[in-house]
Design brief:
329 residues, alpha/beta, 2 domains, six-stranded mixed beta sheet, 13 helices, 11% strand, Lipoprotein
Length: 329
């Protein structure tokens, strides 16, 4: 199973690192709320050239929204396919994001120690680095967990979009001060976007999961205030079919049938589906832009047209939608 790393100013973390955001301040046209972006027809990225970075030879494939750098060209088709799908799904809700970069290292490698990310930081380019697992490299597969890869791609695009929005408003890239705009987005929203973009097919299992754990659903006020969790995104949990994700009835005595991170992740993802179903796919962009202004979630919803201003009314609408969705599915 591969490892994922993102570049962050001059600080390296052991797991997933932050990054500088996109290289362009050009923002897509903002549609009316409810209007759907029409994702462009995205051709497969083509292998265009080779380059040397930090003493390593890289094969580069360029997509419409990303540059993919690999040390083994054999992994390009599968990784590129995942990037293409992420680009399409993200464009459906946000229209696009600044160009990003993805690097796939051959094992053994320690990107945080062995690679110089300065050129990417200089152009404010978000970078995501993977290290292929040993078994994958030996067996001719990508060697990166598919659920992890898709989730990190979605997070990469969301981070690039968030940083570029803040840079356009303030003229300053958050990463230069050690912070990242994506960290300003509450947990529920980041989870909703990442899982929906990375694995839209996991929304339906999320509905079934919430139905099985309905007595333990988190009220919206608590959901909106939930802190970031050191846990996989819902799309990763559903993809791995973890033992704790039983779709059966909750255990007797009121104990939840799943751990809180799974419940929060599933509820955030399905609440995102509720918003898209009620207000259109580009509503997520409108919410993101308002949240990045520093407004709390409830004030954001109160300010957007068509959304109940009263939290009780919103909670009732959400509950009714979820009950109907559970029956339909």
């Amino acid at each position: 199973m591969g490892r994922a790393i993102r570049s962050i100013s001059a600080v390296a973390c052991a797991a997933l690192l932050g990054a500088c955001a996109g290289r362009s301040l050009h923002m897509p046209r903002l549609p009316r709320i409810g209007e759907s972006f029409l994702p462009p027809v995205v051709p497969y990225a083509s292998l265009s050239d080779t380059t040397t970075m930090s003493g390593r030879l890289w094969y580069r494939a360029r997509g419409t929204a990303y540059d993919l750098y690999v040390q083994s060209p054999a992994v390009i088709p599968e990784v590129d396919e995942r990037l293409q799908e992420t680009t399409r799904q993200f464009a459906r809700h946000f229209g696009g994001a600044p160009r990003v970069a993805v690097l796939v290292f051959e094992t053994p490698a320690d990107p945080t120690r062995e690679f110089d990310f300065t050129p990417f930081r200089a152009t404010h380019t978000q970078v995501l680095a993977f290290v292929r697992g040993r078994k994958g490299a030996r067996g001719g597969t990508v060697g990166i967990d598919d659920g992890l890869m898709r989730a990190r791609f979605a997070e990469l695009f969301l981070a690039a979009y968030a940083d570029s929005v803040l840079a356009a408003r303030t003229g300053r890239w958050d990463a230069t001060s050690g912070g990242h705009a994506v960290d300003r987005l509450p947990h529920w929203f980041a989870e909703a976007v990442i899982s929906r973009v990375a694995g839209p097919e996991t929304v339906e299992p999320g509905v079934r999961f919430l139905r099985a754990n309905r007595p333990h659903l988190v009220p919206l006020q608590r959901l909106f205030a939930a802190s970031r969790l050191a846990a996989p995104a819902w799309c990763e949990m559903a993809d791995r079919k973890l033992p704790s994700l039983s779709f059966g009835a909750p255990r007797a005595g009121g104990a939840a049938g799943a751990d809180p991170p799974a419940l929060l992740a599933a509820e955030s993802t399905v609440f995102g589906e509720f918003l898209v179903d009620r207000y259109g796919p580009t509503f997520l962009q409108a919410v993101a832009d308002a949240l990045l202004e520093g407004l709390p979630t409830e004030r954001v919803f109160a300010a957007l047209p068509g959304v109940p201003e009263d939290r009780t009314a919103l909670e009732r609408s959400w509950s009714e939608w979820l009950a109907a969705a559970a029956v339909d599915r």
